Amino acid sequence: FNAQRDRIHLEHKRDAFARCHALVFPSEFARDRTEAVYGISGRQVSVIPHALDSRFRVRPAAERVEGFRNDASEGRPYLLHVGSRYAHKNVDRLLEAFAAWEGRGDFRLLLAGGGALAPSESELVDRLGIADSVRVRKSLDDDALLLAYHGATAFVFPSLSEGFGFPVLE
Questions:
Q1: Element at 108 (helix H, strand E)
Q2: What's this model's pTM, rounded to 2 decimal places?
Q3: 23-46 pLDDT, tens digit each
């Protein structure tokens, strides 16, 4: 939060918190960080964790998972990252690690959610020489997301800071 726009955003949040009777957070981490940044201690604060949609507790049919894999990664095994690609999500470091990984030639890296690659991300992918291995799905509905999780060889979550971290729960 360095730019003037960000300072204004912080001030608006602080003002909003001051007008609230009570605050509810999805995790103790989110509560603690908010208390530290905005100085809201001593207020009525509750932590109520998010819940998982029941569809994420069911294994989809193997042919549906295989169909997703064929479509998303040309049938190749893939590593999956789910979510936005804001700086704290650490996706640049993930791209660098993937590029340096000796086994990457056999895999794809699937970035699900977060929209299209930003110009700086595209430049990084090109500079690292991994454009042929990185696949982007700008968004996935819950059914496709379930297939993506089940089709992945590994799920990667390089985030530096999370208020909750839904993909880990999913």
A1: strand 108-112
A2: 0.78
A3: 898 888 888 888 888 877 767 888
